[in-house]
Structures are given as structure tokens and as C-alpha cells.
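Design review, sub-item: ligand-bound model
Attendees: FS, YL, KQ
YL presented the inputs for the pyridoxal-5'-phosphate complex:
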Amino acid sequence: MASNHPLIESRQQEVIEDFSVFDDWMDKYEHLIDLGKDVPVIDDARKTEEHLIKGCQSRVWLAADVADDGGVIFTADSDAIITKGLVGLMVRVLSDAPAQAIAEANLHFLDAIGLHQHLSPTRSNGLASMVQQMRLYAAALAARQS
Amino acid sequence: MASNHPLIESRQQEVIEDFSVFDDWMDKYEHLIDLGKDVPVIDDARKTEEHLIKGCQSRVWLAADVADDGGVIFTADSDAIITKGLVGLMVRVLSDAPAQAIAEANLHFLDAIGLHQHLSPTRSNGLASMVQQMRLYAAALAARQS
Amino acid sequence: MATTSLPERIRRDFPVLQREVHGKPLVYLDSAASAQKPLAVIEGQREYLSNYHANIHRGAHHLAQLATEAYEGARTNLANHIGASGTEEIIFTSGSTDAINLVAQSWGRHNLSKGDVVLVTQMEHHANIVPWQMACEAHGARVEPVNVHADGTLDLEDFHACLETHQPKLVAMVHASNTLGTINPISDLCRAAADAGALTLVDGSQALPHMSIDVAHLGCDFYVATAHKAYGPTGIGFLWGKKEHLEAMPPWRGGGEMIQRVSFAGTTYNSLPHKFEAGTPHISGGIAFGIALDWMKGIGMDEIAAHEADLVAHAHSALGTVKGVRIIGTAPHKVGVVSLVAKGIHPYDMGTLLDGQGIAVRTGHHCTEPLMDHLGLESGTLRMSFAAYTTTREIDVAVAGLERALAMLR
Amino acid sequence: MATTSLPERIRRDFPVLQREVHGKPLVYLDSAASAQKPLAVIEGQREYLSNYHANIHRGAHHLAQLATEAYEGARTNLANHIGASGTEEIIFTSGSTDAINLVAQSWGRHNLSKGDVVLVTQMEHHANIVPWQMACEAHGARVEPVNVHADGTLDLEDFHACLETHQPKLVAMVHASNTLGTINPISDLCRAAADAGALTLVDGSQALPHMSIDVAHLGCDFYVATAHKAYGPTGIGFLWGKKEHLEAMPPWRGGGEMIQRVSFAGTTYNSLPHKFEAGTPHISGGIAFGIALDWMKGIGMDEIAAHEADLVAHAHSALGTVKGVRIIGTAPHKVGVVSLVAKGIHPYDMGTLLDGQGIAVRTGHHCTEPLMDHLGLESGTLRMSFAAYTTTREIDVAVAGLERALAMLR
Ligand SMILES: Cc1ncc(COP(=O)(O)O)c(C=O)c1O
Ligand SMILES: Cc1ncc(COP(=O)(O)O)c(C=O)c1O
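KQ shared the predicted structure:
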């Protein structure tokens, strides 16, 4: 993974800056809850097994589509508010970027904001699975484009 | 187990005294090797599966008979010299005593001479099995006598 | 009764309880998942590894003798602790799960056949369901569950009806539920099962840390538990079985230790308990398990049980004041487990926001999915679980933390 | 090459090596039975139990995250250490024995049937014989052994003949013999087996502590080993298997962790590696195993191997001067294992008299009875076995001790 696509990189910087004001986990979670409110919600009709992410304690649905300009549009939802915040965070960083750039993104911001521990291979929260699924969608879309 | 039969008790005291001069394990083993030489040897014809003691790394054969005076006579053998010494030690303490007394003997001398660790439920040496077998023989003989 | 409370006396024995999480003092309410370890256990294991580690049983040398004595001493300790009639009835396993699989596979091989039933309850842990499903599938038998009431107690009427209808070969049931806390009336259940001609296996994983156990009094045929929930190390647990059953069962795992004689012409097996203990055992784990039993005995199981009953009562009443919260499992006799749900809120969200405040609880189905399905709790529950070292103050902190979490989530 | 010898540099890491036995400094020559543990392993386990113990995988709280990361980190470490293609190929077990039983029972269920053959060698440990005998008996298959030469090397001609004659479904063979020290030419053997259409399982119990291992280069299908012989804790080991095989195999133990969804209507299983890891794992053991691997890597497997080769050469030549002693196992490539017999003397007597001098060796059949029968050694051998911390001086002390013992016994 070389340098990031400028859009992904600038979004990551924004997020790092946003989170830098919080020195307490509860504030971070408060912010995540807010982020969840802005997630572009997946169509109810698409909340199927196919769009369900495995490996989360809560249920997370995620879909990826390509906009006219070639950027990827993610829509998502979850029955848990913080999980929805996590997916909202990822959507904020990755949406609108080109598929190939998403598939190859270096998501260093997770480390910077202290969420890398949520990437551990535990099966309780789905951040690792979400990230993986977003990359897979992007890779599939990229393959279709080329 | 109340107080021991006088014969068994005095033999134990003798053994404790014998061993008291050794402060080194090698000297104790030397003495055991000597004891092995005095074991009344079991008839070759009786070295059968029936007289083999289970749970020893070496093979130990042991038989028990009743003398005219009612005392138990043990005969034994082993293909390992130290094991033979251990069985010799037990024979020295228990032979000639009445069956019932053997079955119920309190073998405190093993503790006193530092051999109690050989009584641990490890399967490598057969002291625990020997003691158990001698008690079983004695109990069987006692039952037959009464 | 001592004048200082139990946790006041023992908390300093638990190094982890002195730590912080996310800058807050740790409040550890996840003991049903795994208990923390007292210094005696930690240091006993270290002492073993530092001073007398050796492979056991067959070694003639001094360290092997010391290690064997310590390991077999733990077996004796455990046999006494649960009222076994002898050490040959104690099989060390890697945990409860391993122990139940041993019975399901070994006993199942000769005793389950087409049309047979293994009866379980709807409140079983997966460890006491899946091994039976697998064994039943292999032999054409089937698993049937006994109903659980909405309050978390076992439906005794259904239990008797199931014995009658299914004539099960074996009844597998939990002594105390890890999700509901419910303590089942095991000796009554075992008597009824025996009258119906069924063997009984009791999963004591949550009972061992919380109460005194006497298998003879319970009247079961098999009893299993795991050390790590009872202040002991990970990787070890046990199966107790009546000697006659264990004698009749074929070995399950082959290898060293469990044999009497090996040759290509034919192999003969060792006597109990070794027949079921193939390979090098978890020596340091066994020894430390024995130390954990001593530690519990030193406090007294009755004092631990009384303390936990107080904690449960305190938690029930403190949670009663929290709006929208419903306690799942309100049986009259419970171990230190309190499950709850809050209307419209996902347990995972509550758990995460408690973690943010340094409070460790568990959320989800707690490896009891069929129970969650039965109770209509598809997202599971939030579970607080207690041990001898838990304080009422910690429960208060958790309840306050929960209120804060709910305020953020609503 | 460092100027100080390897043991000089590392002995202080091993607390037990500072102790006395029967008033003499301990000379521990029983590392093939179980290796002693470096401080890093002992303290790592203690640190875990003191500071971040929690049940893993399903816990959302901080300690559970830390414990999960450490445990799964050990899996990654191990996967790298043996050249696995991914962590899903690493199944933690309670040891080598458990790992072999897993394959014999799970793989055996769908792959062994009437008339099939599992090929083993005459130098296998019971752990690599008995599970196959049990699995073969269950399915009407049989176990056939490959001949071993008098010098302790595998009879390669017979190996090829057996592949041809028996067309085995699987070949189970030891990487390095715990009794003879022989290192088998595993990559050649695996290639030949694969050409004959057989899968291969390699028992690496004695290889893991002594050499670098690359399963891809070896070309086997399954590889097992146990931590306690490789400076790690008791109660943990692993099975490595090619993903395609592990995917195709049914689960063996049922319970928590290994499921995806449980219901009385039907249960579905988790993905690899969890499918084979039912129940709470030996968390502290896994973490400490990872530390042991790091410790070995810190020294370098090549340096350990070279040191042990020196020790074996030294022992062979020192023992060559002892009257009546015969070394059993003189293969050109050996791990740090030297077995011997003395004419007319029972190995148990020699072992006991060495123990009296503080020297720990092992005597008997070393869980390789068929090998002992084959070599006509009904009382077994006396085995000295070495590790990274063993010194040539210790071997000299042992040889002198042996001479003293023989003098007493003759
Ligand atoms: C070659 C070999 N295989 C298998 C084993 C069994 O290992 P464990 O007892 O740790 O399962 C051993 C050790 O005893 C061994 O030396
Ligand atoms: C009731 C019950 N049974 C069985 C188990 C399984 O125990 P282990 O995972 O230690 O095998 C547990 C713990 O998870 C439990 O709570």
C-alpha cells in the first residue's frame, strides 16, 4: 500500500483532527453515535443475507454502488448505534473515492484515533469485517470497471 | 491403623537405624542394593503373569505363603537391582508377621528413611504397587485363616 | 461473620483488580466468562515452572516425582472437593467442553443408537448441546429440549413429561445457568431421571465457583466443570463419572499415558483415570487448579455463596430503578449472574459504553443461542457476573454507568 | 559466532537450572520429555494472569480485546514460524497427542474405510500409533509399520515398498524420533507419499525445539507439535493442516466458539480455525507459547541446532569410553537425544543412581514400545536428552555419574 488517494487521505486527516479533541473514550463514542446518524442508509429491500456482514455481534448491512463520476457510494445500517457509528466513520472516509483506491487504502487513521484495537481479530465487533467487506466490494467494482 | 504388631514395629526401627547413618542418596542406594541380595527369591516356576506386579518400570514378581507358625513368608525377585532392593526392604520389614498385622501395618519407616517419595502415584517405580500387593496378599491370607 | 466484608479481605489477592481501563479503575463484572486469579494461583504456577517442572508419571527422577506428586495431589484435592469416591473417577480434561465431548463421543458410541433421545434443557450452554447433536447425528439418535419458563426457571412439568414421552438414554443439564443464573434442583432432577432409566450429566461450569458440590448427594452419573471460571488457570477442567460408567466406556483419545501395552499386533489400555488421559497433561494447570480449590476452601464455599446472593439481590434492586431495563432470569435461587435488556437498545451498545467507563460486562447470546431464541431476545442480553471479589460498590458504579450509557443511546 | 557459548549466555534465564537435587546441582538431561522454561515464558504467563486475563473472542471489553490480541498474535507468530500460508491453518490443541487424535478421528471419519491402510514407522511415539489404531478399528482399516534399521535410521527401501504394496491413504511419521534422535528425510518421504497418492502427517514434537520448520518446504499435509517440549507451557500444542483438508474435515469437538449458529433445528459451524477449537482455549498457554517461539527465534534455530549437534557428538564420544555401554540410535542426523543400554544392567537402575547424583534422565520405552520390541530392548533404554541450555560439562558429569552407577551395579 503506497500513498493514499488524495480524497481518502484528506478525509482521514479530517477524522484525525475531529477525534483529537477527545481525550475520553466516552466522548469518542458520543462522536461515533453522531456519525451514525449521518450514514446514508441502505434500502430496506437490500437488508438481506447477502448484504449482512459476518462477524459482528450486532447486525450490519452494507452495499456499494458506483456513482456516475466513478466514485463508490456506500450505504449501510446497523441495529446497534455504535456499530452504525463505526460504519458511518468508514463510509465518511471511503465514500466517493475510486474503487481501486479504496481496495488499496492505507487506513492509518484508525491507529491515530485509537480504534485499531477494534480491528483485532475478535469476533465481537465488526470493524475488521466491515473494512474487509468494503475492500472486497471495491475490488470487485474495480475489476468490473477495468 | 492403630499401633503396629511388635515384630513389624521393631523391624521398622531397625531399618530406620540402619538408614540413619546415610546422609547421601548414593549410600542409601548402595544399602538397598545389598538388601536386594538377601531377598528370599521366588521360585522360577512362579515367575508368571499372576505374580507380576503391575505399575513398575522394571519387572517384579512377588509371592506370599503362610509358614507353620502362621507368619507370612514373602518371596520375590526383580530384573532391576534397586527394585529388588526395595522389595527386599519391604520383605525384611513384613516377613514372618501375621497376615492381619501386615494388612494393617502403618509403614511409617518409609517416611523416616526418605523413601515416601517413592510411594507417590507415579508409575515409574513400583514401591507403591509392591506395598499394595503385599497388603492384598496378606488380607487374602488373613481372610482364609479366619 | 467477619466484620470486614469478603471482598475487602481478598481483593488485594487479585493483581488485576488494581488496574485501570481507559483511565478508570477496572470494574470487572465478567467473572462468569472467566474469573480473575488470586496470587496463590499465579504464584503457584510460576513456582512450578521455576522450580520443579518435569514431565510426569513415567519419570524416575526427582523433579518428575515432585511434579507427579503435585499433579496427582490436585486430583486428590478435587476428588475430595466434589465428594468423588476415588481419584480414579476424576479425569482431567482441557475444560468443560472437552469433558462433555469425551462423554458424548465415548459413552455415545456404545449407548446411543437409532431413535434414542438425549434430553437437554433450553437453558444449556452450546457446550452441552452441540456435542450431543454431533453424537446423536452419528448414531441416528436425537436431542430434545426441556422447556424453560419466562422467569428463567426450568419447567419441571415439562421435564417430567419429557422423561415420560422420550424415555431418554441420558439427560444433560446445567447445574447453574451462565446466562440466567438459575440454579437447577439437580438432585430432584437426577432422581427423576434415574427413575426413568436415564443417566445424567451435570454441567457444573458455573456451579464450581459458587457453591459446594457433592456428586454423591446430587446423584448424577457424570459431572463436568472447568477451572478458569473457578479462580484457576485456563486449559484445564475435569470429568467426574461413576466408576462403573467410566470403566465401561472405550477410550476416546489414543496416545501415551493411556496405554498399558502398545504393539502393532494389538494395544491394551491403562486403568482409570489414565485410560482417558492421553498425552502429556497440562501439568502446571492441574497443580494451579488444586491451589484454586484450596483458595476457595480457605474462604469457604458457603461464605462465597452468601456473598454472591447478596450481590445478586443488590443488583436486582439497583437495576429495578433504571427506566426501561428488564432483568432476564429472576429464579429464586441464582448464582452471581444478572442478565438484562433495555427496551429499544442493543446490548452491544450498552456494553461498549460501559467498557468506555472501565466496566467489563459481556453482551450477546453467551453461548446460549437456543435460550435467546426461546426468550425472543435475538440480540442477546447484557450480563453482569460476580465473584467472591466483587463489591456492591462496583455494582453501583456499573448501574450508574448503565444509566449514563442509556442516556447517550436514547 | 559469539565468543561465549550458547548455554553460558542463556542459562541464567532458566530458574530451575540453579537448583539442587539431593544436595547436588541439578543436571537436567530430560528435555525431550519436557523442556525447562525461560523466564520470558514464565513471566509472560504471570503478566497475563496478573494484568489482562479475560475470556477471548466474544468479549467486547478492553481486557477481552487485549487477551484476544495476544492469543491471536501467538497464532500469527506460530503461522510465520512454521511457514503456514495463513493463520486459519493453525489449530491450537492441548498438545501433539490431541492434534493427532483430531486428524485421526475427523479426517478418518470420511477417509478411512474397509481395507484402507495408514502407514506409520516403527519408530513412532505411541501418540502417532494408537490414534490410528483406534480410527482404523472404527472403520475397518489397518495400520502398517515401515521397518527401522538397527542404527536407528528409517528403512527407505521398505518405505517405498510399503507405499507400493499397501497404497496407504495416509502416512504418519515422526520428524525426529524422541527415542533415537533420528531426523527423518521428511521432504523426500512426503514427496514419495504424495506420488503414491497418500496424505502425510508429520509429528514434529521433537523437531520444533531443535530446528527451523517450513511446512511448505517439507511438503506434508498435516504437521503437529507440542509447546512444552519447545520451552513453552504445558497444555498447548497445535495442528497445522493444508486449508483444503481442514475445510473438508468435519468438526471433532462441539461447543462454544466452533459454531456459527446453534438451534435445536440444526447447528452450523464456524470457519477455520475456530471450527476445530471448541470451548474456552488455553489462553495463557497460547500466549506463552508465542513467547517461547520468540525466545527461540531470538537465539536462532540454526544456532540451537548447531549447539545440539555438538552436544550429541560430545556425548557419543564420551560414552564411547564407557565399558559395556551401547548407544541406541546412531543416525548421521540427530536431534539432541542419546539413548543407551548397558549389558546386563536394567536402565531403571542406572536412572535411579543418576538421580541420586542429581542427574535427571529418562529410562524405559519412552512411549515407543513397538520400537523397543523391534530392537529387542525389552527393558527400554536410558535416554539423555539436550536443549539449548545443556552444557558439555553436564554431559561429562552424567557420563562420570553413569560410570559410578555401573560400578555399583556390577
Ligand atoms: C515424538 C513425539 N510425539 C508425540 C509426543 C506427544 O506429545 P504430547 O504428550 O505433548 O501430546 C511426544 C512427547 O511425548 C513425542 O516425543
Ligand atoms: C454453563 C457453561 N457450560 C460450559 C461452559 C464451557 O466451558 P469451557 O469453555 O471452559 O469449556 C461454560 C463457559 O463458557 C458455561 O458457562
